Amino acid sequence: MSVSESLHKLVEARIPFRNRLEPMVASEQGVTVRCDVTQAEGVGCMLTHLDLVEENKSSLSMDELVHWAEWMCGRVTYLLEPLHLIEIDRRNGLALVRSKMPRRQNSSGKLSENIAYFELVADRRHHASLRRFQFRRTTRDRGSVPFGLTHDQLEVLVDDLVEGALAKNP
């Protein structure tokens, strides 16, 4: 069973729930995925974050890290906004990927004071972390907010993160 299937089964086993934090951890062949789920039902779930840790692999070169980040931008096309590479931190071996066009409208279609966007941080050690942030223009601060995925999207996302982390040149 793949790590994405294991995670899906963990979520399904606790359905339905809402308004509580359920930590989920799935591991398979040296790959561990962690997420906190705040709500789950038959169709999908709300997560606060999704973290991938792939152990016992040699570190990626900076070129390989850039390639992985760019590959993820082209591969993960099923979130609310497309992703693009923002910055490479060569000193710390990190790639920062964010929503290309952050969401600036509320559910009624009006411009909002808040800007919501995904942020994916990948590092040379085959680790990746996905979160959704909301920037508040009035207070000039940002905070992490839950994001929704269907169960299928969650499986595909985990599979994509694992594939990208395991491959030297995805």
Helix content: 10-25%
Share of β-strand residues:
over 45%
Give the low-pLDDT segments.
Answer: none
Number of helices: 3
Q: Main beta sheet: strand number and arrangement?
A: 10 strands, antiparallel
Please state the structural category. Answer: alpha+beta
The average pLDDT score comes to: 89
Structural domain count: 1
Number of strands: 10
Helices and strands, in order, run as HEEEHEEEEEEEH
End-to-end span in angstroms? 22 Å
Shape: globular
Our Rg estimate from Cα atoms comes to 16 Å
Could you characterize what this model shows?
The structure is a single chain. With 170 residues, this protein is of the alpha+beta class. The chain contains three helices and ten strands. The chain has one domain (3-166).
Topology at a glance:
Layout: H1 3-14, E1 17-28, E2 31-40, E3 44-54, H2 62-75, E4 83-89, E5 94-99, E6 103-105, E7 111-123, E8 127-136, E9 141-145, E10 147-150, H3 151-166
Antiparallel strand pairs: 1-2, 2-3, 3-8, 3-10, 4-5, 5-7, 6-7, 7-8, 8-9
How is this structure best summarized?
Helices cover 25% and strands 48% of the residues. The chain is an alpha+beta fold. The chain has one domain.
Primary descriptors:
10 strands, single chain, 170 residues, alpha+beta, 3 helices
